[in-house]
UniProtKB/TrEMBL annotation:
<dbReference type="Pfam" id="PF00300">
    <property type="entry name" value="His_Phos_1"/>
</dbReference>
<dbReference type="GO" id="GO:0005829">
    <property type="term" value="C:cytosol"/>
</dbReference>
<dbReference type="GO" id="GO:0004331">
    <property type="term" value="F:fructose-2,6-bisphosphate 2-phosphatase activity"/>
</dbReference>
<dbReference type="GO" id="GO:0045820">
    <property type="term" value="P:negative regulation of glycolytic process"/>
</dbReference>
<feature type="region of interest" description="Disordered">
    <location>
        <begin position="168"/>
        <end position="203"/>
    </location>
</feature>
<feature type="compositionally biased region" description="Basic and acidic residues">
    <location>
        <begin position="389"/>
        <end position="407"/>
    </location>
</feature>
<feature type="region of interest" description="Disordered">
    <location>
        <begin position="369"/>
        <end position="407"/>
    </location>
</feature>
<feature type="compositionally biased region" description="Basic and acidic residues">
    <location>
        <begin position="183"/>
        <end position="197"/>
    </location>
</feature>
<protein>
    <submittedName>
        <fullName>PHOSPHOGLYCERATE MUTASE</fullName>
    </submittedName>
</protein>
<dbReference type="InterPro" id="IPR013078">
    <property type="entry name" value="His_Pase_superF_clade-1"/>
</dbReference>
<dbReference type="InterPro" id="IPR051695">
    <property type="entry name" value="Phosphoglycerate_Mutase"/>
</dbReference>
<feature type="compositionally biased region" description="Basic and acidic residues">
    <location>
        <begin position="372"/>
        <end position="381"/>
    </location>
</feature>
<keyword id="KW-0378">Hydrolase</keyword>
<dbReference type="InterPro" id="IPR029033">
    <property type="entry name" value="His_PPase_superfam"/>
</dbReference>
<dbReference type="GO" id="GO:0043456">
    <property type="term" value="P:regulation of pentose-phosphate shunt"/>
</dbReference>
Length: 407
């Protein structure tokens, strides 16, 4: 795993991606498997949100807004993540109102956004939800159905992770799936056979969750040309991600189409290569803040990192931060005048995508924050080993892997 040393540019080059786990819930305290079932925050969780609002990350992102960058907050629609995301949004607004010149405050506010994405939701464990040692716990709703299969879960994380990495301008290579269990040609038939059974769970997840803060989005049916078939491009995948609720996910082929039609690429227009090349340093960047769940974060780092950037991270503590940035591979080659790979401003033969591709070749992803809970005071901390002040781990508690083990 790449570790980041102290540097003078905390946000690196290009955009950034910060993942945050929600604050502690009552179910966390009871060691109950939550999944897509909602649970109110515990008193310790409320204290963690107060500490999160004072995190130094918001000051850094506010400085990015002043430079003309954009800050986009995305969160799972579940209540525990929505509450955590609202704290992050309010902290950013507070910095804008108190530390920004009145003439610039409105512009900074327009470049700050918050929205829910159903693909960031926790995995649906079906009848296993709200259980401990395999038994349902009193005071929690009962889970129903078979839940989300492991293949469907990994596919959802991969597709959403791809979108997030592209949105933050961190993804310029194919995702690293070497040695990981992913859906290929051999599993597509099995997954399609499960479609009818999986379709029976549609609507069950929403009945146990606060689905979204905005108006309901249109369903993308499994028969849609955009979501099935052999030819699917990146824009079609992204449109599927943004329009489908969590329970409507259908399997999509991960391999590229081999047809001649799909391989054909549009020729660059004359206008695209005749315009003067702008200063890349002056282009606005996107800084994404993702408030989601611990299992999504760990699965994201296993499935969505580009080749050569394998990262092994600890499972996230409540309100822990993980920040991905892009750093220069060759130290010292930062400015345009010093970097031979960067074209001159007056060049008329290089397009913006080509220059960004060259820049990506000399950059690497760096995990700047790893399970960072430095914003929490001692009384608000929890640990995976013993959950902080909650006592020792239960030796009889079964792991998620054991739950799916055939008997």
């Amino acid at each position: 795993m790449a570790t980041a040393a102290a540097n003078t540019s905390p946000l690196g080059v290009g955009g950034t991606l910060t993942l945050i786990r929600h604050a502690q819930t009552i179910a966390n305290v009871a060691h109950v498997l939550q999944g897509s079932t909602d649970s109110p925050l515990s008193p310790l969780g409320e204290s963690q949100l107060e500490c999160l609002g004072d995190c130094s990350l918001w000051k850094q992102l506010h400085e990015a807004l002043l430079r003309g960058d954009c800050v986009e907050i995305y969160h799972s629609p579940l209540g525990r993540t929505s509450r955590t995301a609202q704290v992050a949004h309010e902290a950013m607004r507070r910095h804008i109102l108190t530390s920004t010149e009145p003439a610039n405050a409105a512009a900074c506010g327009e470049r700050l956004s918050i929205s829910a994405r159903s693909a960031l939701q926790e995995r649906d464990f079906g009848f296993r939800e709200c259980t401990r040692r395999g038994f349902h716990q009193t005071g929690f709703p009962k889970g129903i159905g078979r839940g989300e299969s492991n293949d469907a879960w990994m596919r959802r994380v991969q597709m959403e992770g791809k979108w997030l990495m592209s949105r933050a301008e961190l993804r310029h290579t194919e995702s690293n799936t070497t040695g990981k269990r992913t859906l290929g040609r051999e599993n597509e038939g099995n997954e399609s056979k499960k479609a009818k059974n999986d379709g029976a769970t549609i609507g069950r997840v929403e009945s146990r969750t606060s689905y979204a803060l905005s108006a309901p989005q249109a369903f993308v049916k499994s028969s849609s040309k955009n979501c099935t078939g052999k030819q699917i491009d990146q824009k079609q995948e992204e449109s599927c991600i943004e329009s489908k609720p969590i329970s409507a996910w259908q399997p999509l082929p991960l391999h590229a189409s081999s047809s001649a039609k799909a391989a054909a690429l549009p020729k660059p227009s004359i206008a695209s290569i005749s315009q003067p090349f702008p200063d890349l340093a002056a282009l606005p960047r996107r800084h994404l803040v993702i408030v989601t769940h611990g299992l999504f974060i760990s699965s994201f780092f296993k499935l969505c990192m580009p080749a050569g950037n394998q990262m092994s991270v600890p499972f996230a503590d409540n309100t822990a931060l993980y920040t991905l940035v892009r750093h220069e591979i060759i130290p010292g080659l930062v400015g345009r005048d010093e970097d031979p790979l960067m074209p001159a401003t007056t060049s008329t033969s290089t397009s913006i995508p080509a220059a960004l591709s060259e820049q990506a070749k000399r950059c690497k992803l760096v995990l700047q924050r790893t399970n960072d809970t430095s914003h929490l005071h001692e009384q608000a901390r929890t640990t995976r080993a013993g959950r902080g002040r909650l006592g020792e781990p239960d030796p009889k508690q079964r792991s998620l892997k054991d739950m799916w083990k055939k008997r």
